[in-house]
Write a structure and sequence with these properties.
The chain is α+β, with helices and mostly antiparallel strands. The chain has two domains: 3-98; 104-258, no CATH class. The chain is built from eight helices and eight strands; from the N terminus they run E-E-E-H-E-H-E-E-H-E-E-H-H-H-H-H. The strands form two sheets. It has a five-stranded mixed barrel. Helix 1 runs antiparallel to helix 6 and helix 6 (202-209) runs antiparallel to helix 7 (228-244). It comes from Archangium gephyra. This is HipA-like kinase domain-containing protein. Residues 12-242 form the HipA-like kinase domain.
């Protein structure tokens, strides 16, 4: 992942609870900035990196993710005190996502309907990373240049908010899949499972987890881990064990879909 420096605070985005913002960076690009000081904390940014990059490995479209150095003084002209406090609390390394100008939120009632292969791949991916935040009410997908782009994975990998019994919980059938916005179109789930197993290998998982900044791991972030390396390895172990549960969570998705169509 690239590391860039924010040079101009453009405007807040008031959608959702994390209060992201559009910023301009030193490379002249515009990015949606996710703040480390937001209420969801650094764990949401870790989930964004791991899930976003795993989605990319699966061939799904995700805007480029970058690490963003933020100078808290960039927000000093912001009239909203809450936003000023958020920027002040987020000095240092944050997460950015390439801004897609002109994109609109995917609306399943408007279409166009996704193809079965793509819908199935997204449902399978979300079941793998336990993403509870891809519902008709909040699809977290953008339509841009007539294609679907996945955004906002901070609610995925929710196991890391409580590490007790995390390996046991890696075997979850993920019943929340019944609320997935694309489930009605996901008629190729066995093929999606096969692609998941082929593409998400142990080496891939090691590489993706390796993208998480050292400063976001270890005892300062999670006291149960003595080092960042130990913390990182726990993510790798969970994701490998989660692959073993693929037959169960795909079966659960198929059962939920059968009740819809």
């Amino acid at each position: 992942m690239r590391t860039i420096t924010a040079t101009r605070y453009v405007t807040p985005l008031r959608e959702g609870g994390s209060m992201p913002a559009i910023v301009e960076a030193a490379d002249s690009g515009l990015y949606v900035l996710k703040f480390r000081g937001a209420g969801q904390g650094i764990k949401a940014l870790v989930a964004e990196i791991i899930s976003g990059e795993l989605a990319r490995v699966m061939g799904l479209r995700v805007p480029e993710l970058v690490l963003v150095e933020l100078d808290p003084t960039l927000g000093r002209a912001e009239p909203d005190g809450e936003i000023r406090d958020l920027i002040k609390a987020s000095g240092g390394l944050n997460l950015g996502m390439d801004y897609l100008p002109g994109s609109i939120t995917f609306d399943p009632t408007v279409g166009p309907a996704p193809k079965a292969e793509e819908a199935s791949a997204i449902v399978c991916f979300d079941a793998y990373v336990t993403n509870v935040d891809r519902t008709p009410k909040n699809p977290n997908m953008l339509s841009w240049h007539k294609a679907l782009w996945l955004i906002d994975h901070g609610a995925s990998l929710y196991f890391h908010h409580a590490w007790d019994d995390y390996l046991e919980r890696s075997q979850s059938r993920f019943p929340a899949v019944k609320d997935h916005v694309l489930l009605p179109w996901a008629s190729a789930l066995p093929e999606a499972e096969a692609a998941l197993r082929q593409r998400v290998t142990a080496d891939v998982i090691q590489h993706v987890v390796g993208c998480v900044p050292e400063a976001w791991l270890g005892p300062a972030a999670e006291p149960r881990f003595a080092t960042a390396a130990e913390h990182r390895e726990a993510y790798v172990t969970y994701l490998l064990k989660r692959l073993e549960a693929a037959p169960a969570f795909i079966e659960e998705a198929q059962r939920a879909r059968a009740q819809l169509v």
